[in-house]
Amino acid sequence: MKVKQKTESRPSMPQIHVAPSPHVFNMAMTTQGMMRDVLIALIPVVVAAITLFRWLAVKQLLICVVTCLAAELVLTRMRGKPLSIGDLSAVITGVILGLSLPATAPWYIGVIGAMVAMGIGKMVFGGLGMNIFNPAMVGRAFVMISFAGSLAASGYIQATGGVDILSQATPLTAYKQSGIGTALGPLFWGHVNGSLGETSALACLLGGLYLCFRRVASWEIPAGMLMAAGVIGGVANLADLSAPWTVLHHLAGGAMLFGAFFIATDPVTSPLTPRGKWIFGAGCGTLVMVLRLFSGYPEGVMFAVLFMNALTPLINRWTIPRPFGGV
Asked: Which of 59, 120, 114, 58 shows the shortest CA–CA distance to 91?
């Protein structure tokens, strides 16, 4: 639905919104402001990662952020477009990509992933606001398929609080391959191996709730994702009460919370309508649990989000709201 607004101080500018009238716009909500809020929300996750993995986390994040900024600069110049580094979108992509990688990933993984995220995930579609897939997840999927062996989140030994965290398998991998469970405490507080952003459920909750409070992220998406995952995980839990991996482990473990609040809520690649956001979130949660329970892959957030990104245009079309007073 196209709506044109005219003001005396600002020329008319067409904006597309899938929502019934009346329309109210918050002109103070700029792209840079939204990205700044996302960066603030990511602070607890970054702090938890640095606390656990030390300089390895700092190195990984710096590599991804610097490469994303450089790729944005070069590709924008090649397209003859104005520089867009100031909107902080490239920084966000770099931070989320870095947090989705294990601390022990070689330096070239972050470089290649960032270049693919900015080039294939964003710029080939026309830049910010035009991409249909989450750029960070495009880069993450590329390096995971191309360098699966290098992305194994283990093999480097560093004592942290008396426990060699980096020499351990991730909780989901340990359960998938050996049936070994992990206590909920380490999953919640953040004392397990894994990708940088998935080790502390508490940090993800703090940042995610801040995003929802600021209305930068639509709360319907994480709510739908966690509810769907909780229902399926609960059924699986009831089917085998002796299993050491419960529904709470599914919600707190892996990238479930990080993906629900920071990846699936990308406003560019998620639906516009409230009902569509519920469908999108529920679809992500369902696919994650299907992959975790029935596939050989222990995690499924990345694939679930990318698949639902592809369905976003259809979800928007299916959930067009009824105009006020209309049929």
From this structure: 114
**49 closest CA partner among 39, 58, 41, 40:** 58
Residue 2: enclosing H or E segment and its boundaries? strand 2-3
Tell me the longest C-alpha to C-alpha distance in the chain: 68
Chain segment 239-281, per-residue pLDDT in tens: 887 788 899 999 999 899 999 999 999 999 999 999 999 999 9
For the domain spanning 31-318, the CATH number is 1.10.3430
Which residue ranges make up each domain of the chain?
31-318
Is residue 48 a contact partner of residue 200, using CB atoms and an 8 Å limit? yes
Residue by residue, DSSP assigns 90-126 as HHHHHHHHHHTSBTT--HHHHHHHHHHHHHTTTGGGT
In the structure encoding, which two tokens stand for residue 113, read together? 């992933």
CA distance 145 to 158: 27
Q: Model's pTM, two decimal places?
A: 0.85
Distance CA 135, CA 263 (A): 10
CA distance 39 to 21: 32
The C-alpha atoms of residue 216 and residue 126 are separated, in whole angstroms, by: 23
Structure tokens at 300: 């499924």
Handedness of CA 31, 37, 38, 39 (dihedral sign): positive
